[in-house]
Amino acid sequence: MNQIDMSAVKQQLREFTQSYRRPLRGKFAVLAPLREEIIELSQKGAASGEIASVLAQYQITVSKDTVARFLREETRKERSGRAKKSGSEAQASGNPSAATRPMMMPRGLTAPA
């Protein structure tokens, strides 16, 4: 019977785990490599329908709703990354008030003491 060299298996599995990237699925798999260009078009004022039409010229068929969802998801990721970064930078600088925003109150109301 063959003995399994567990240390070799463990090493190979570790290498596989470090290089593993989950395959992109669905329509976002097509859009992900074009992320920067799609975001730039959106920032320049192109509507999601216009972006879908431009992509169709290059045989990339997605709906305007898919483009809108992709942009919404990407901007959400970007914002959450920025918020984490700016909060950690403020804490690192020793200025805790920079990491928190003052509570906004409607006119005529005061913040509880």
Largest sheet: none
Helix content: 55-70%
What's the number of helices?
A: 6
Shape: flat
User: N-to-C SSE series?
Assistant: HHHHHH
Task: Report the C-alpha radius of gyration, rounded.
Answer: 23 Å
Tally of extended strands?
A: 0
Termini, distance in Å? 76 Å
Please indicate the percent range of residues in DSSP E strands (runs of 2 or more).
under 5%
The mean pLDDT is: 80
Poorly predicted spans: none
Structural class: mainly alpha
How would you explain this protein's 3D organization?
This protein has a domain at 24-75. It has helices at 6-19, 26-31, 35-43, 48-56, 64-92, 96-99. It contains 6 helices and no strands. The relative contact order is 0.08. The protein is mostly helical and 113 residues long. 63% of the residues lie in helices and 0% in strands. Helix 4 packs across helix 5 (64-92).
Helices, strands, pairings?
Blueprint: H1 6-19, H2 26-31, H3 35-43, H4 48-56, H5 64-92, H6 96-99
Helix pairs in contact: 4-5
Gist?
This protein has helices at 6-19, 26-31, 35-43, 48-56, 64-92, 96-99. It has 113 residues and is mostly helical.
Which labels suit this protein?
single chain, 113 residues, mainly alpha
